[in-house]
Amino acid sequence: MRKLGFMVAATAMLMTVGTAAIGQADEPKNGGTLVIGTTQKARHLNPAVQSGIATAMPGTQIFATPLRFNDKWEAQPYLAESWSVSDDGKSITLKLRENAKFHDGKPITSEDVAFSLQTVKENHPFKSMFAPVTGVDTPDPLTAVINFDKPHPAAFLAMSSALLPIIPKHVYGDGQDPKSHPANNAPVGSGPFKFVEFKPGEYIILEKNPDYFIEGRPYLDRIIIKNYKDPTSVALAMDTEEINMYPFLAPTKDIARLKKNDKLVVTDRGYEAVGPINWLAFNTQNEYLKDKKVRQAIAYAMDRDFVINALLAGQSKAATGPIVPGSPFYADNAEKYDVDLDKANAMLDEAGFARGDGDMRFKLTIDYIPGSAELQKGVAEYLKSQLKKVGIDVELRASPDFPTWAKRVGGHDFDMSMDIVFNWGDPVIGVHRTYLCDNIKKGVIWSNTQSYCNEEVDKLLNEAGSELNQEKRIALYKEAQEIIVDDAPLVYINVLPYHTAYNKQIGNPPLTIWGAMSPLDEVYIK
Amino acid sequence: MRMTFMVARRLLHAFLLILAVLVLNFLLIHLAPGDPADVIAGEMGGATEEMLADIRKNYGLDKPVYVQLGLYLGRALQGDLGQSFFYNAPVLDLVAGRAGATILLVTTALLFAILVGTLLGVLASHKPKGIVSGLVTLISVIGYSAPIFWTGMMLVILFAWVYPIFPIANMYDITKGGGIFSRMIDILYHLVLPAVTLGIVYLAQYARLTRASMLEILGSDYIRTARAKGVAEIKVYGHHALRNAILPVVTIAGLQFGSIISGAVLVETVFSWPGLGTLAFDAILARDYPTILGILFFSSVLVIVANLITDFIYRLVDPRIRKEG
Asked: ipTM exceeding 0.85?
């Protein structure tokens, strides 16, 4: 067995390495209720069959995962007290805790791990998370050996946050479809908080799990997740202290306003793994956009600093490639496409598109996701005026609702479109899907809707996906990103300005790479 | 016998009306572009082709529209409104869980509008050119012309920032403990702003209507006779004039029940009131066909029932109809 350097004794580790113990000054206190405000409405509470923030926030409290991550992208023991990787990298052995129980008192065994992994593999939308898994051996109740057909380092991040919740086989193994299982609305998990009540679209109430497998935790008595109709209402609720935490806060005017409130802390930490990018996608099959020079010219025509500082009030960070800054796989070597209108004009001339009627070269449309005026429509409007300067006549094409936009972009019926896509921790989970040639799938949103295909990129991504040596892996991703950015199937604009606002009375706020989508067992009320 | 026949005929009409509502709504919703599977996939953060096909199959979206309609009507007639596409729950449970909040909001708003509107109308009719009458006219014009969501948002701003005395969202404070009585008080406290917002438009109409009606009736012969006989002025207003003047208000209130329910959608959205309105709003955005249809079904039943109740009240307050049977 080759150790990866992080085979750890659980108790000692968990006592010393806090997943959120950042700036911790006071002794944690027991008791109190954390009230989280959100606009995200959960369909149900089982993250094994449902991705997304709305299910992940309660899901990570109800269900424990084999691993968890700290704020330095380091895997930490959670349900698995230790783990090791085989010499050929094709299996990971998890050693489970002896004392871990589900909320109904039944012990957690390796059978539950095998069952959960199979359920996630078959039903979760992120197929790449466990695609190489060939099976899970369960030599004893506390040992689970996950076998792969090739080394699969992405499995570590895929075993954390809400991505591999360990669900009870004795509940979900009754033959019913896990996607519509009645237990999804009243789940039995093993996480720090137990399910109490779920009113769809209104609130979720969770209470402390007294038999939690980490002694002395959680500190809070209850967590209430309240739904609000819009971000302004949540921000108002922060002001009036109706709630004491607002994760995934994005409107820049609300961020700026809440930052002025002396009772609150507003931070952009905790979104490194989510990695949300706002970008402009090209349909590379379009008669003009199939030319790389045209795509690059459009990239040079955009003033990213203007978007960030003027349109987004300086509350957002620049995105310059497929992976967000803050991820260990981020490439700082790729072309940044700093604004240069002369260069953009010259490139379009060079591409053979001379200015004609009305001083325009050609006409394109931009779609955008409805309901996100600031990040999508606002930037699209700016691009329209900016591209006019280089002779591209742009028409904004509004969609009345999300399905209409998804149908257009998923169906490749677009020229250019604004879009928001998440990295989801490991590039295998959230990045590969946008660039791999075999993921050009008409009708599927957030696949390779750009129809971008570069065999060299495919080779590098596939190689990186199976590389266990972290340094080599980083190098492969950097090389791939450099090529992708040069090919410009997308113009990377900004990282979504996600922030967490929390009351200063909150101790140990969730600032790990998964932020509020991680177990809140260390959070306390001062 | 005649009464039984009339009731049976009304019930048959109501049934056919509901059936027509179901069919029309079903077809209208399916005419809209876009695929609910995309919304579910969007909520999931993406999906593969197989998963999209699976979603369509599970929800019956892969079948032709007329087959879907037939299946839906068949189930609906058996009391099964289907499974929500968005939430992992039967539509009937979702609608039943939210209906109480909407009924409470709508009836409170309606009562507030009728009582206060009538009172203001009577006060205004006392001295048609006086200050009170001018004020009532002003309130009526503002109440009637201001869009309901604007009034709501102004109240939210007023009570969130300037005078934070009323809660601006939700039906009760989930963080508060206490028994049923304290929960009821909390609900009433939360009900004030949404009910006033919803009621104010109708209040304005009822005040104007009562004022006009009262002015007409106060000038009639039998009122003059009553006054000549020395009947106290309060009795002239309350017993003789108002009883007749309120008839148009009752008629209009009954007819407006449907528009009040649609107004509730906006008010519930502004105040995060957990009723059918917010559920409808979310369901429309999510293309949650079964939930939208379930809400429309329930609200049409409510309107039909409300019209029946109006007929009944009309019989109580108007002896001419009572005598006609």
From this structure: no
